[in-house]
Amino acid sequence: MDNIEIANILNQIADILELKGGNKFKIGAYRHAAQIIEAMPKDINEIYKKDELEKIPGVGKSIADHIRELIETGKCKKFEKIKKYVPKSVVDLINIQGLGPKKVKFLYKKFNVKSIADLEKLVKSHRLLRFKGWGKKSEQNILKGIKLYHKFSKRFLLGRIYFLAQGILKKLKAHRDVDKAEVCGSIRRMKETIGDLDFLVTTRKPREITNFFVNLPEVQEIRAKGSTKANVLLRRGPLADLRVVKPESFGAALHYFTGSKAHNIAIRKIGVKKGLKINEYGVFKRVGKKFVKIGGEKEEDIFKAVGLPWIPPEIRQNTGEIEAAEKGKLPNLVSLKDIQGDLHMHTKWSDGENTILEMAQAAKKKGYKYIAITDHTPTVGVTHGLTPNRVLKQIKEIKKINQKVKGIKILSGIEVDIRKDGCLDLPDGILKKLDVVIASIHTAFHLPKKEMTKRIIRAMQNPNVDIIGHPTGRIINKREPYQLDLEEVFKIARKNGIVMEINAFWNRLDLNDINIRLAKNFDVKMSIDTDAHSLSGLDMMIFGVATARRGWAEKKDIINTLPLNKLLKIFK
DNA sequence: GCCGTTTTCGGCCCGACTGTTTTCAGTCG
Fold it and tell me: Which of A79, A112, A138, A315 has the highest CB neighbour number within 10 Å of its CB?
């Protein structure tokens, strides 16, 4: 069992306890431990082997026992026992937006609601209206929540399975009979959600490799297995395909399996016009009645055959990249190595896991030249946000740490909350003292479009605001973006020199690819920041950069590619 | 269930918002 599987079970225990109405601090303890284990870079099995489980913060004797049991037997008595209290399908209902443990418990006990179908039927019968606390609005909200759940429930978030895919890829590459291996599909295009995993391998021993693949420990169930193709269900949830081709077809197969489908069709169409046939085995030229292979070992061969330069996977959507390539006007996409610093992160001063010093040292290790510490403000209650006094204290503290740590500059910042009316929850006099001010919304998500737009624009007119954090507020698979007139917002951003954040955290990725392209059209500058709440959170930068690339962003569009002296000129 | 330069017991970040009420429970972060 890996970290995420263990964390999943701890979270499920917490879910069930919540439904049972258990002690909320106990529930919190399970969740806390799950969060730490999921986010920590170390393999929990290694920690188990060293008998150091209880050294993990948030893990005491009891949870350590559960983990030991899980690692040794794959099961845990506590979980097996409380699982009997409610069916899993009932627990899953709390994932519907607007439903929490209390409401789900009520629905289960009173109406025996066990599934989304049950729930929908009940709501539509209006029988709920007779009960205290359930009104017309509640009905509407539940139906909306169900719709959202259906819309998103089939795809996996990139950040949840990216590292799983990389891990499997590493194993494939390490196999002595494997020539080349790559992960294709939407993961290679770094799409924010992933349907399944596509692995491509070249080898002279296809049978051995397919066998090796279906017997990987990550595999739960073999669904199909042949000599050059296999399909499995992974324990983490998604399906995974393996395709084996000959080395001389690697490039063609890579292109074919990377997609997108729309992009591939467009490329093949150009090929047809030139008398070419393009498929996963190569590029073929028509000679009389026969087709003769003219390329396919490298991905470049495919593009070259249709007279185009190589196009980065992230923008292969057939949304203008082929036309741009034809004109020699492909964007020079920003890349991870261009990033000079990270301007949004939290520390123990609010809801982060690590100290300012630890974050700075980890960032320095990444080669960053600067970071900004941007803790929360009091409105976001759970986070123990910074009051004016604590802001001043933190500024002093950062000054001290800057003298200690060489080679990286720590900027004093804040993620100040934008209240419902658009004013900020710290006084201007305090904001003025900070190097960088990010303003974000964490409450009142459901305002009408006009009001929400006005709210953000009012915040952008505050002379101290530099960046708007996660500008649309969406949580992938969970919460829709706010109703917002982004074009209006971008106009003001351009005028006032406000930077729009590309929040790199994998369940946000906000701005998303489409809005990044829009912002670019308005000549709005952006910053790619992790919103890290722990050291491992800093690793999320790849997802932010990938999203920026999908939005055609270039180095010049992204402010945290600038050296410090130039960056500081942008801030007020 | 976890944790301790306020500690080994007794705390455990809590404010904003919504929808329902008319003072508050539930949800969210």
Answer: A315
